[in-house]
UniProtKB/TrEMBL annotation, chain A:
It is found in: Nucleus. Residues 1-261 form the Helicase ATP-binding domain. This is General transcription and DNA repair factor IIH helicase subunit XPD. Residues 232-274 form a coiled coil. Its cofactor is [4Fe-4S] cluster. Belongs to the helicase family. RAD3/XPD subfamily. It holds the Pfam family HBB. One of its GO terms (molecular function) is ATP binding. It comes from Astyanax mexicanus. Keywords: 4Fe-4S, ATP-binding, Coiled coil, DNA damage, DNA repair, DNA-binding, Helicase, Hydrolase, Iron, Iron-sulfur, Isomerase, Metal-binding, Nucleotide-binding, Nucleus, Transcription, Transcription regulation. Signal peptide: none annotated.
TrEMBL record, chain B:
One of its GO terms (biological process) is regulation of transcription by RNA polymerase II. InterPro entries: C1-like_sf, Ssl1-like, TFIIH_C1-like_dom, TFIIH_SSL1/p44, VWF_A, vWFA_dom_sf, Znf_C2H2_type, Znf_RING/FYVE/PHD. Residues 60-201 form the VWFA domain. Keywords: DNA damage, DNA repair, Metal-binding, Nucleus, Phosphoprotein, Transcription, Transcription regulation, Zinc, Zinc-finger. Gene3D superfamilies: von Willebrand factor, type A domain, Zinc/RING finger domain, C3HC4 (zinc finger). One of its GO terms (molecular function) is zinc ion binding. This is General transcription factor IIH subunit. It is found in: Nucleus. The keyword Transcription applies. GO terms for cellular component: nuclear speck; transcription factor TFIIH core complex; transcription factor TFIIH holo complex. The keyword Nucleotide-binding does not apply.
């Protein structure tokens, strides 16, 4: 609280690590809301960014409780407007559109009903279908502001239904004057979406990134482009369609194209004016220089532009026709493209903007179909804009299948600060928070900002409800490690199996076991099966396995929870960095123990990673090893943190690798876990682990008496 | 227990950290901690006064003991099974001592749950059966569902004014059920059967729900002494639920009549309760308790008359159950230093040596720890109070 207040006072940025389940969300919300009430001019808006839709809903519920508390205590109704925003898929109430299953389809369909020219056509030709909810909203919704209150996604939908307004557009419009906005952090980080949704948000906002331990990867993903041969093929079709449409329009409505041309000559002046007044969140895809210039002449007319695209496409195709791995920087790429097909840097930079304008002019309804060509145009713009922080890697085949040609062009961003920079620059305070941010100092370094406060909080517990144990040896004293040299070792695999077997006999209900990768998990499980360990485990508990397939995994998860619920007990074998390790909580009996087999290092042979590591070393002076360990440990912490979701919860955390005992690994775990690792729980054998766990579980099973309400957090000094 | 199985060797047992309990005091001596541990052990029993609550005095209790694979575990010495059975013997005796009006203890095994069936009344038989079970091997997986189902089938028919209870000693952490256990829990709840569980290893979710739904208690043991304590908690009758019906019960108070050997008419006769069990000797006796209604003879009380169904008890039995309704208040504990009166315990007349003394709130007499325990566990009345009452 204190730290957060300091951050807000200083109008700076902060990094706060707070263990989950200790009221992180509510304490953030309550302070910022109080701040907003006290200094309505200093902080006008709170933007709370979370990761998934359920998390967003949770935040809104907390907020609702807070507001109810305010009303109860002060006796007056406050006029706060808070709302959640999500994609059209989650907010659409149009009967036909909302029945579609994929987000892209919904977006496309929605666009085909609400685009301006469609509606213009509707005026002349009433049989052209439009979305009546949008029409209604457009007609009256903007004049009347939405009544103050707390709206989650369902509330918005209900409100929309009642009024007959489109909830999605209503929400998007309302965030401009809402006091609190809760949405996914893609809306702020992904330049393509941020431009649409978030650019008009006030400068005096406080931005909170919750669960932000992966924020650098989100930044990188939002700026990276992968192009496969399939993408290019579909682009080709797109280009053909474009050409045909242009032909058609030229015959029927040449004036329209001329009008567009005129507009382009005038340049993007409008956009420029807007940026100078500093109202907008700057779009990293569309850098400042672009706005000051007009679209270059070579791509100004529609045909020329399509021809240009074709040339660019052919070039990319040629580049993908290779047999060895190529890695090059953006300037190299630009030089090459100039030499081969005479494409200059400048027109490339305008590619994205030009394409958007063209699509608008051509009145193409279904934007979804054109996603490949949009992707390519973004790539073109990015590659020509940034000379630093990006790398281009062309791989002729995947590492796993070196015989099957499947060329991929990775245009990968190595510097997460590029995507997040506008956020830091624009908003007055940005707070990054999560349960696992240790070591804290690395985030400011890789995201390139200067925080006012950095603090790690620990939990005040009424009882020691977590029990981290580091198992380093089997009963036969053979060291356990998922180190590359020993991971195939028979003794190591057998010891891992024994550990799981012993734990399955003494831990009630659910156990979640994490492996470092799918491949490793498959190997181990296969060899356990041969050794008969699986059979023994199954006498104690049922076994479920996470697979890369989402449907299968959610099925396994459902059955796992059922088995935990009715007392049979179950083990979920899953993979660090997988779906299970990130988004799913194992409260209470769903996760009484988490076993982490090995240290979850990333696949270090990947070229993208290598390039990134090199970049980090050159630019930020972060050593490769430091970053790898940091990355591995935050994932390990994330995995084991799944089990403890609150004070009444308890769980074992077993780190099964002797490398965890080393100071460099241990020191990178979050404070709230580190605190409970005593010297006595390092490098245990399986037997010792079993004894300690038994004791712990019995202790924890005793009725839990709340001694006194503990304060929120205590500062760990 | 004469043929106690050979104790497992210390090194065969698990890895323990016994030294962690001990802490040195300032002078580096362990004496203080050791004494403290001993004292704590003495005083562990928690007095939970019910106040004036209606208690279910007539109890039907099923005890279900898990006998799956996990009972072979050696964390209780020599293993869980033997330890449990030994404690059960103690429990059965205590149970009949404290709840003399008709009780029904059943032990049974289904799919590796013990299933030893008795009729009511006699603790000796239960103990004998328990002894027999010692040393039996434990195999397979337990099924909570089957155990509950069988217990329910029998308890269903018990009259509404008696309590229906199931106590499960659950060692395993898993249950292999043939059907959905939540359905069964619902049925149990409807039938007002109270299920309590004592877990031997850790908290299992399904037991938490089971006990919460049916109004029982769920505890997990820490060690053997804690186990014993938890068992003893079940000796006391639970508060009756307000919804259970109450009714007046006819009871017979038979007199013990012994015909003198010199009497010519006296013929030795069989006790009615011995008719079924063959293995307990001839059973021909001269004297016994005669049912006031039908003159059937019994050698032991309390019992339900086999002939006319009358409940036969003796007056002391009723009196013993009585104290549950009006429990003796807990004595006030105060440190010895603050105590100003004479330095002798009112009960045993020994010198007060322990750290704290106990004062009866009614007559403000002082007692030592030992006597305090004895008074509350066995006597159920304050000797000093009775003394003053008698005098006045």
């Amino acid at each position: 609280m204190l730290e957060l207040k300091r951050t807000l006072d200083a109008k700076g940025h902060g990094v706060l690590e707070m263990p989950s389940g200790t009221g992180k969300t509510i304490s953030l919300l309550s302070l910022i809301v109080a701040y907003q009430k006290a200094y309505p001019l200093e902080v006008t808006k709170l933007i709370y960014c979370s990761r998934t839709v359920p998390e967003i809903e949770k935040v809104v519920e907390e907020l609702r409780k807070l507001m109810e508390f305010y009303t109860k205590e002060t006796g007056e109704k406050n006029n706060f407007l808070a709302l959640a925003l999500s994609s059209r898929k989650n907010l659409c109430i149009h009967p036909e559109v909302s029945s579609l299953r994929f987000g892209k389809e919904v977006d496309g369909k929605c666009h085909s009903l609400t685009a301006s020219y469609i509606r213009a056509q509707h005026h002349s030709n009433p049989s052209q279908p439009v979305c009546r909810f949008y029409e209604e909203f457009d007609a009256v919704g903007r004049q009347v502001p939405i009544p103050s209150g707390i709206y989650n996604l369902d509330d918005l939908k209900d409100f929309g239904r009642k009024k007959g307004w489109c909830p999605y557009y209503l929400a998007r419009y309302s965030i401009l004057h809402a006091n609190i906005v809760v949405y996914s952090y893609h809306y702020l980080l992904d330049p393509k979406i941020a431009d649409l949704v978030s650019k008009e948000l006030a400068k005096k906002s406080v931005v909170v990134f919750d669960e932000a331990h992966n924020i650098d990867n989100v930044c990188i993903d939002s700026m990276s482009v992968n192009i496969t041969r399939r993408t290019l093929d579909r682009c080709q079709t797109n280009v053909d369609t474009l050409q045909n449409t242009i032909q058609r329009i030229k015959e029927t409505d040449a004036a329209k194209l001329r009008e567009e041309y005129r507009r382009l000559v005038e340049g993007l002046k409008e956009a420029n004016v807007a940026r100078e007044t500093d109202i907008y969140l700057s779009n990293p895809v569309l850098p400042d220089e672009v706005l000051q210039e007009a679209i270059p002449g070579s791509i100004r007319t529609a045909e020329h532009f399509v021809g240009f695209l074709k040339r660019f496409l052919e070039y990319l195709k040629a580049r993908l026709r290779i047999h060895h791995v190529v890695q090059e920087s953006s300037p190299q790429f630009l030089k090459d493209i100039y030499e081969k097909v005479c494409i200059d840097r400048k027109p490339l930079r305008f590619c994205a903007e030009r394409l958007r304008s063209l699509l608008r002019t051509l009145e193409i309804a279904d934007i979804a179909d054109f996603s490949p060509i949009t992707l390519i145009s973004h790539f073109a713009t990015l590659v020509s804009t940034y000379s630093k922080g990006f790398t281009i890697i062309i791989e002729p085949f995947e590492d796993k299948t070196p015989t099957i040609a499947n060329p991929v062009l990775h245009f990968s961003c190595m510097d997460p600060s590029i995507a997040i920079k506008p956020v830091f620059e624009r908003f007055q305070s940005v707070v990054i928070t999560s349960g696992t941010l240790s070591p804290l100092d690395i985030y400011p370094r890789i995201l390139d900002f200067r925080p006012v406060t950095m603090a790690s909080f620990t939990m005040t517990l009424a009882r020691t409800c977590l029990c981290p144990l580091i198992v380093g040896r089997g009963n036969d004293q053979v060291a356990m490690s998922s180190k590359f040299e020993t991971r195939e070792d028979f003794a190591v695999i057998r010891n891992y199996g024994n550990l799981l077997l012993e734990m399955s006999a003494i831990v009630p209900d659910g156990i979640v076991a994490f492996f470092t990768s799918y491949v490793y998990m498959e190997n181990i499980v296969a060899s356990w099966y041969e050794q008969g360990i699986l059979e023994n485990i199954q006498r104690n508990k049922l076994i479920f396995i996470e697979t890369p397939d989402a449907a299968e995994t959610s099925m396994a998860l459902e059955k796992y929870q059922e088995a935990c619920e009715n007392g049979r007990g179950a083990i979920l074998l899953s993979v660090a960095r997988g779906k299970v390790s990130e988004g799913i909580d194992f409260v209470h009996h769903f996760g009484r123990a988490v076993i982490m087999f090995g240290v979850p290092y990333v696949y270090t042979q990947s070229r993208i990673l290598k390039a990134r590591l090199e970049y980090l070393r050159d630019q930020f002076q972060i050593r490769e090893n430091d970053f790898l360990t940091f990355d591995a440990m935050r994932h390990a912490a994330q995995c084991v943190g799944r089990a403890i979701r609150g004070k009444t919860d308890y769980g074992l955390m077993i780190f099964a690798d002797k490398r965890y005992a080393r100071a460099d690994k241990r020191g990178k775990l979050p404070r709230w876990i580190q605190e409970h690792i005593s010297d006595g729980s390092l490098n245990l054998t399986i037997d010792e682990t079993v004894q300690l766990s038994k004791h712990f579980l019995r202790q924890m099973a005793q009725p839990f008496r709340r001694v006194r309400p503990a304060p929120f957090f205590t500062r760990f000094s | 227990m004469d043929e106690e199985p050979e104790r497992a060797k210390r090194w065969e047992g698990g890895y323990e950290r016994t030294w962690e309990v001990l802490k040195e005091d300032e002078s580096g001596s362990l004496k203080a901690t050791v004494e403290d541990i001993l004292f704590q052990a003495k005083r562990k029993r928690v007095f939970e006064s019910h106040g004036q609550v209606r208690l279910g005095m007539m109890r039907h209790l099923y005890v279900v003991i898990d006998s799956s694979r996990t009972m072979e575990d050696q964390d209780l010495k020599p293993n869980r099974l033997t330890s449990t059975l030994k404690l059960m013997e103690f429990f059965v005796e205590e149970y009949f001592d404290q709840n003399p009006i008709i009780g029904n203890v059943l032990l049974f095994e289904i799919n590796t749950f013990f299933y030893i069936c008795f009729d009511a009344g006699n603790p000796k038989k239960h103990v004998a059966a328990l002894k027999k079970a010692v040393g039996s091997t434990c195999l397979g997986e337990p099924s909570l569902y089957n155990a509950l189902n069988i217990a329910m089938q029998t308890l269903k028919h018990m009259p509404g004014h008696t309590s229906r209870e199931i106590l499960i000693i659950f060692s395993s952490l898993t249950t292999c059920d043939p059907a959905n256990i939540y359905e069964l829990i619902k049925t149990l709840k409807e039938l007002k059967i109270r299920v309590s569980v004592i877990g031997l290893s850790a908290e299992v979710r399904v037991c938490t729900i089971l006990t919460r739904e049916t109004g029982g208690s769920y505890n997990v043991i820490l060690d053997e002494s804690h186990f014993k304590e938890l068992l003893m908690l079940h000796v006391k009758p639970p508060p009756a639920s307000s919804s259970s019906e109450c009714s007046l019960i006819r009871m017979g108070f038979p007199q013990h009549i012994i015909a003198s050997v010199s009497d010519q008419d006296a013929k030795p006769s069989f006790s009615m309760s011995h008719l079924e069990s063959v293995d307990e000797g001839p059973g021909l006796t001269l004297g016994g308790y005669y049912c006031p209604q039908c003159r059937a003879k019994y050698t032991e009380l309390p019992v339900e008359c086999k002939v006319c169904g009358l409940t036969l008890v003796s007056a002391p039995h009723l009196a013993r159950s009585f104290h549950h309704l009006f429990p003796l208040d807990a004595f006030q504990e105060s440190p010895l230093e603050e105590h100003t009166g004479d330095r002798f315990c009112q009960a045993c007349q020994g010198e007060l040596k322990d750290k704290s003394v106990f004062t009866c709130p009614a007559c403000s007499s002082v007692f030592c720890t030992e006597c305090d325990l004895f008074i509350h566990d066995t006597l159920h009345c304050c000797p000093a109070c009775i003394h003053t009452q008698g005098a006045s």
